[in-house]
């Protein structure tokens, strides 16, 4: 019997599991997919918002304002890339100047520090390439960029280092309350826990219904993106938003934490919670709307397109509470934007709720806050590279030529706690396949390493989903 079962290993479930692992508790993190961060967490704008956008008084506003400053320390503890590059919301006419002033006022109410309204000249001093018709901007220096799945994986790994058991490929299909405990059914087994925390993202509605709580509805709202080659990564230095319209925050143009350029998203309500297709219309729309920020984005340098699904709640705010229908069952649902920015504060908020319903919470003396640092070969000096190769020659073998990723890094990504089991899981952890060729050259070599390290037949290595086999048969086997 576990003390706590956390359902869903996105950024929220991973943060919550790690926060809980600071206490003397038996914890299990249950995830339906083959990896951590395979839901909304893997496909979003990756911005740690400053916090001026959400309506004052909402949980979104409060937890974004609290979450943003927590990022420096958590990323340091877990050795995760994070850059506080600041954001601008641009205005191209007087109507939009009014809008950015409203955002500024909201920001003051939300307690956001150091915001400024910039005139056209100051905007251009900060962003030389911005369109000439930009007449002002709301500047927020505390906004940042991150790699959300890198963080979620690091949190899950650190949670596992601190005793959390992670069960992947374990879709929760039913939950039963038996006396004071919960029996959680997956396709594989029955898991017993005293408390359940529902961090199921888009599916948190379905999970909540399993305990008879039908109090909210989640609608998927799709957003599509283009990601451009690193040669386009320095077109802007800040996260550039457009003044909000009735369709939302507009299209963002931003560098990524790894140096690419990200353009998107659009916003489209859809019915299917599994539909992460990109569409010609969606991509054309984001390219057209991005011209308002920068007229000539070199879309010929696009290396891939993707889409993510926002978990839009019908309540209009995050739903973070013990269910009224089921004692000891906590919903952490409707975590749409700024869910990533708010995530560390959401985890603390959940612990407070948890403390309120569980008087026996005791801090763990031997909690390990730090993750073993990664060796990122391309970030080392020449002396450090030589030393690392001397210690382990696998760091001298480059597997991914686009990103400069070595065999040593891939082997480490597989063999850590919460390690990679699929081709895409390796890609998300250490980036082979994230470059221009998108894995065309390194994919087969990464598969060989995965098969060797996991002791599997190479035919059993999957791309991402449990049935996404890459190799089907030998060619020329009859010759
Ligand atoms: C287009 C877009 C742009 C965004 N931009 C930003 C941004 O710039 N900044 C920001 O702060 N936020 C942003 N967000 C919001 C942010 O991405 C989310 O708030 C965050 O990723 C939500 O994380 P989560 O853990 O709740 O959900 P998820 O990442 O979806 O995790 C839920 C997990 O639960 C698992 N699960 C579901 N059902 C079951 C089941 N039955 N059994 C077991 N496991 C299950 C899923 O597989 C999944 O891994 C954006 C979102 C989108 C879509």
TrEMBL record:
Residues 3-352 form the FAD dependent oxidoreductase domain. InterPro entries: BFD-like_2Fe2S-bd_dom (IPR007419), BFD-like_2Fe2S-bd_dom_sf (IPR041854), FAD-dep_OxRdtase (IPR006076), FAD/NAD-bd_sf (IPR036188), G3P_Oxidase/Oxidoreductase (IPR052745). Residues 398-452 form the BFD-like [2Fe-2S]-binding domain. This is Glycerol-3-phosphate dehydrogenase. It comes from Maledivibacter halophilus.
